[in-house]
Amino acid sequence: MVIRTMIGLDTNVLVRLFAHDGDAQSELARDVLDTLSPAFPGFVSVVVVAELVWVLARSYRASRTEVRRAVRALLDAPSFIVEAYEVVERALKRYATTACDFADCLVACTAAEKGCRTTLMFDRRAARNEGFFLLTGPYPMGYSQLV
């Protein structure tokens, strides 16, 4: 399949897809999204995925299950090209099995993809999960000794 052209999608366009607000912006977003196809896909950056999750969870009070379904729908739709698809998919799996925020899962999975041994953080709850290390330093032996 040859992709002839592609358009980038902003977070708020995708929010309208999942929020079903019924307002004019929702209708306009739906009209645009209905024109997408594998030959004319919408590009979704990892930043947009992270923002989408945050908006759905915080502004629309979507449950973790609803958030997972929304991200899964993006990944599965042939009319969307999701940046770093495999990383987002791994982050989604981690999000489903931990209490971590999706953004933390995405950060850890992106770091691991790039060869990082761990991801340093101050979030005690998230740091209990694999791939994170709670930064409490200073570490006189150097940060390479953390892992």
Care to describe what's here?
It is built from seven helices and five strands, in the order E-H-H-E-H-H-E-H-H-E-H-E. The protein is mainly alpha-helical and 147 residues long. The protein has a domain at 7-83. A three-stranded parallel sheet has the order 1-2-3. Strands 4-5 form a two-stranded parallel ribbon. It is elongated.
User: For this entry, what is the oligomeric state of its chains?
Assistant: single chain
| Gross geometry | elongated
Termini Cα gap: 44 Å
Radius of gyration over all CA atoms, rounded: 18 Å
What structural category do the secondary elements indicate?
mainly alpha
Q: Given the structure, what is the number of helices?
A: 7
Reading the helices and strands in chain order gives EHHEHHEHHEHE
Q: Quick check: average pLDDT?
A: 91
Major sheet: size, sense and barrel closure?
3 strands, parallel
Report strand order across the widest sheet.
Answer: 1-2-3
What is the helix content? 40-55%
Number of β-strand runs: 5
**Which stretches of 5+ consecutive residues score pLDDT under 50?**
none
What portion of the residues fall into strands of 2 or more residues? 5-15%
Protein name: Ribonuclease VapC
Cofactor: Mg(2+)
Function: Toxic component of a toxin-antitoxin (TA) system. An RNase.
GO molecular function: hydrolase activity; magnesium ion binding; RNA nuclease activity; toxin activity
